[in-house]
Amino acid sequence: MAFSHIVRFTFLLVLSASLVFASEPSPLQDFCVADNTSPVFVNGVACKNPSLVTADDFTFSGLDKPGNTSNQQGFAVNLVTVDQFPGLNTFGVTVERLDFALKGLNSPHSHPRATEVLTVIKGSLYVGFITTENKLFSKVMNKGDVFVFPIGLVHFQYNIGDCEVEAFSVLSSQDPGVVRIANSLFGANPAISDDILSKAFMLDKKTLDYIQSQF
Ligand SMILES: *[C@@H]1O[C@H](CO)[C@@H](O)[C@H](O)[C@H]1NC(C)=O
After folding, report:
1. In terms of domains, do 195 and 132 share one?
2. Residue of the nearest CA to atom 4 in ligand 1?
């Protein structure tokens, strides 16, 4: 085999391996409980000494308690990432509890590193996500229904029922990240220039200043 063929073959092998592992890398040991105090920068969090690990490292409590939805959006989320739950490190999962007051909204946002699977425990939600071709997939969810929000796509959940909503999600990353569209564009610090935002959203400066002042 000519050298250039070997190079090409190797490149394809590496490419296909990286496609297989397109989400988080598989663990190389039984566990790697996060040492959230470690000064070492790695892809993830450094491991705590395994001989010091206890069952408590694999336990998180408190998701029985509703979040405080007394805010403008009528919404609260308790996202339990590796920061709060060291045992999650390297496993590619996160859990969260979502609470919605009447007409509460989880505003349009995306998770750059995770697909989300949401289950409604109580109440009714109108949920949806928007594809890269701007197609909206939406659905009314009732108790016991499960919905999947594909990785990276903008999505929302809105309480359309006549009672508060309790829901839980699992996400396919130990640190899914949240990009809240309105906050990231209108609440950026330092602010994105008026020229850019007014042109992007076809807004006059006064309206733009008003929107920015809300964030
Ligand atoms: C909920 O949040 C509101 C607004 O910040 C606050 O006034 C209220 O005391 C909080 N309620 C509880 C139970 O923490």
Report:
1. no
2. 70
Binding site per annotation, positions: 106, 109, 111, 116, 155
- 40 shares its domain with 139: yes
Q: How many domains does the chain have?
A: 2
Tell me which residue of 153, 100, 151, 145 sits closest to 128, measured CA to CA: 153
Q: What is the pTM of this model?
A: 0.85
Q: How far is the CA of 163 from the centre of ligand 1 (A)?
A: 19
Q: What is the mean pLDDT of each run of 10 residues along the chain (215 residues)?
A: 54 48 79 93 91 97 97 97 94 97 98 97 98 98 98 98 98 96 95 94 92 88
Decide: residue 136, CB within 10 A, 0-12 exposed, 13-18 middle, 19+ buried. Answer: exposed
Element (H, E) at 61: none
Cα(182)–Cα(78) distance, integer angstroms: 20
What backbone torsions phi and psi does residue 146 show, to the nearest 5 degrees?
A: -125, 140
Cα–Cα distance, 173 to 157 (Å, whole number): 20
Q: Which domain holds residue 189?
A: 179-215
**CA–CA–CA angle 190, 195, 201 (5° rounding):** 100
User: If we measure between CA atoms, which residue out of 123, 139, 143 comes closest to residue 69?
Assistant: 123
Evaluate: CB of 70 within 6 angstroms of ligand 1.
yes
Is the domain of 121 the same as that of 74? yes
Q: Is the CB of 68 under 6 A from ligand 1?
A: yes
| Closest atom, ligand 1, to C-alpha of 71 | 4
- What is the C-alpha end-to-end distance of the chain, expressed in Å? 61
